[in-house]
Design goal:
41% helix, oxidoreductase, 2 domains, Aldehyde Dehydrogenase, Chain A, domain 2, Aldehyde Dehydrogenase, Chain A, domain 1, 483 residues, binds nicotinamide-adenine-dinucleotide, aldehyde dehydrogenase (NAD+) activity, alpha/beta, 16 helices, single chain, Aldehyde_DH_dom, seven-stranded mixed sheet, globular
Length: 483
């Protein structure tokens, strides 16, 4: 399977796989073996232009289809994912180090989300008003036309689905750039589009870097909306590119530094297992991972001991191609070195490292499951995204104090509280400054029928999932009818 699955490496434009104009390619390295396992065509500005042309040509017919017809295509794509699960599992293991246990969640949600967005295409409607005498007025929702999508590397298939699902359901066509670190899930998805006969040009998929490919999408004069998921720094660059080109609508899903509060009346085992899963899933490479734990002082020794045991057990790293592996490596050398630099910092500062703290293997980009304790609130371990299996655990005494500390961040993606007191749970859920709050549960728990997105610098310009998300892929028009 290894060689075959990595054979198709070209761009997907107008329903065909084509080489990049420049002929340039970039390498993909297996993070477990550190070996080059494939090379992929790199899109440049000319490739973006021809992809946009194809999407423009496809738009009139695609947007004129019935909602049911668009829904049928998305539903068939979900079925094709199901038929090709083993292939996706293999690809993500060898290109980004995600083990099969992690991919099960990605595959299940990807299929569910595609079907959800397809089935809700029919719910895209406007409003009517008889409030003005002599008039019947209405608002209608129409697709933008050509939209852009730019995705990160950490859950490639799911990220692709969250962009193309609602965009295509609403009648838009799309040019999507995958991440240069993990382009293969998108390439395989493109082949599924061919298999279900998705009309040519409706979805165009480019492999390439932020510059020039991503920037060209963000600046393109014929792209009217762009949805981006990735880091805050790139989100800023995309907003700037939009303002310097055609003021395209921008929605940004960005980073996080999620706090998890454990009160002394919390269901302790549940809190321990949830916190452990949250930081170890995909080796901590998850935007919403609970990275800052605040545990009430009276239960801190018991909680931390149980957490250490759970992290040590569930954090054993292994070969992500094997079925029983719990946790794989970091995605590449850059992320690996970045995570290790935070661990070096913790040591230099003399912070207590209660578990791990080092690279985990001689070969491959593996980092120990790590717990750092009692970190000052202004330290970079508290303020910055580490994107690794590194948990900071601090203690607190009272509710007001911990809320101030939990909210003292520019991020606001996901927060959690563990307590048995319903009044406190609701009070704290209301006070936490985040787009999502887990009560006695935490990330990556999310549901497709409720909006997902960040407060503060974790996001801007809309939400993903839910009916609210579908609406963001349409523009409103008011029509006034004189009677
Ligand atoms: P990144 O910002 O480095 O890259 C994301 C994408 O943007 C890639 O495809 C990249 O090629 C592209 N890009 C880079 N520079 C660009 C530019 N100037 N113009 C246009 N495109 C450009 O992020 P990453 O390292 O791939 O992903 C990790 C980040 O993503 C973390 O911060 C994480 O928290 C965030 N993330 C957020 C969510 C969410 O839903 N909020 C989900 C997953 C990941």
């Amino acid at each position: 399977m290894a060689t075959d699955s990595l054979k198709e490496n070209r761009l997907f434009i107008n329903g065909e796989f084509v080489p990049s104009f420049s002929g340039k390619k970039f390498d993909i390295i297996n993070p477990t073996t550190e070996e080059v396992i494939a090379s992929v065509h790199e899109a440049d500005v000319g490739d973006v232009d021809r992809a946009v042309e194809a999407a423009k040509a496809a738009f009139p017919a695609w947007s004129a289809l019935s909602a049911q017809a668009r829904c049928d295509y998305l539903s068939k794509l979900a079925d094709e994912i199901e038929k090709n699960e083993e292939l996706f599992i293999h690809l993500e293991a060898v290109t980004m180090g995600m083990p099969p246990s992690g991919m099960k969640f990605v595959l299940a949600t990807s299929k569910q989300y595609l079907k959800y967005f397809g089935s809700h295409a029919m719910d895209i409607t406007g409003e009517t008003s008889l409030n003005t005498p002599g008039y019947l007025n209405m608002s209608i929702r129409q697709p933008y036309g050509v939209c852009g999508g730019i995705i990160p590397w950490n859950a490639p298939l799911l990220m692709l689905i969250t962009k193309i699902g609602p965009a295509l359901a609403a009648g838009n066509t799309m040019v999507l750039k995958s991440s240069e670190k993990s382009p293969f899930a998108s390439i395989v998805f493109a082949s599924l589009c061919q298999r279900v006969g998705l009309p040519k040009g409706v979805l165009n998929i480019l492999s390439g870097f932020g510059q020039p490919c991503g920037e060209a999408i963000a600046k393109h004069m014929d792209i009217r909306r762009i949805s981006f998921t990735g880091s805050v720094a790139t989100g800023r660059a995309i907003q700037k590119a939009s303002s310097e080109s055609n003021l395209k609508d921008v929605s940004l899903e960005l980073g996080g530094k999620s706090p998890l509060l454990v009160f002394d009346d919390a269901p302790l085992e549940k809190a321990v297992m949830s916190a452990t899963f949250s930081i170890l899933y995909n080796s901590g490479q998850v935007c919403m991972a609970s990275t800052r734990i605040y545990v009430q002082e009276s239960i801190a020794p018991k909680f931390i001991e149980a957490l250490k045991q759970a992290m040590a057990q569930m954090g054993v790293p292994g070969d992500p191609t094997l079925a029983d592996t719990k946790r794989g490596p970091q995605v590449d050398k850059l992320q690996f070195s970045r995570v290790l630099s935070y661990l070096d910092h913790a040591k230099e500062q003399g912070f207590e490292i209660a578990l791990g703290g080092n690279k985990a293997r001689d070969k491959g980009y593996f980092v120990d499951a790590t717990i750092v304790r009692n970190v000052p609130e202004d330290d970079k371990l508290i303020k910055e995204e580490i994107f690794g299996p590194v948990l900071v655990v601090n203690t607190f005494t009272g509710e007001e104090e911990v809320l101030t500390r939990a909210n003292d961040t520019e991020f606001g993606l996901y927060s959690s509280v563990f307590t048995s007191d319903i009044s406190r749970a609701l009070r704290v859920a209301k006070a936490l400054e985040a787009g999502a709050v887990g009560v006695n549960c935490t990330s990556p728990f999310m549901v497709v029928d409720l909006p997902m997105g960040g407060w503060k610098q974790s996001g801007a310009g809309g939400r993903e999932f839910s009916k609210a998300c579908l609406d963001t892929w349409t523009q409103l028009k008011s029509v006034f009818i004189s009677l």
